[in-house]
Write a structure and sequence with these properties.
Blueprint lengths: L6 H34 L3 H13 L4 H8 L3 H13 L3 E5 L7 E5 L1 H8 L3 H11 L4 H27 L3
Antiparallel strand pairs: 1-2
Helix pairs in contact: 1-2, 2-4, 3-4
Amino acid sequence: MSGSTQEEPARAEALGALADSGRLLSTAMVLFHTNLSRRVGLGPTEEKVLELVQRHGHPSVSELAEQTGLAKNSISDVLDRLESKGFVTREPHPRDGRKVAIVATEEGIARIGRLFIGMMTRLGQLNAEYRTEELALIAEYQRRAAEIQAAEARNLADGTA
């Protein structure tokens, strides 16, 4: 990175645009997921816990509590609601029979998946406008930014922030 003074205004402008676009994306995501959750009869926390269950296969209550920063009893309450609505089941853990694994149901996945079709189609069209290298850079930035935000969320949950 060059230290030229000519670059500083352009960098400041780019960082401002990045911050603005991040806020826009964050708000759009929250609103999308809030409305998606409402459409299938879930709360936003339930929908995001369900996403973690799908992403991580057969997580335990302890693993979900660690990932979310929520207390185990809070996660258990969320899972009870998801189970009563047909989105998850509890089964013996595939690697540790002493634990219970949480598994997303096929019917629950399908109920939510249908609501993503329009957005995924439009995002596919947007992705087609970028070169592979550009997409890789965007993906790396988003992953790293998500790691920072997840760590800060855990800090807020722990009271360390």
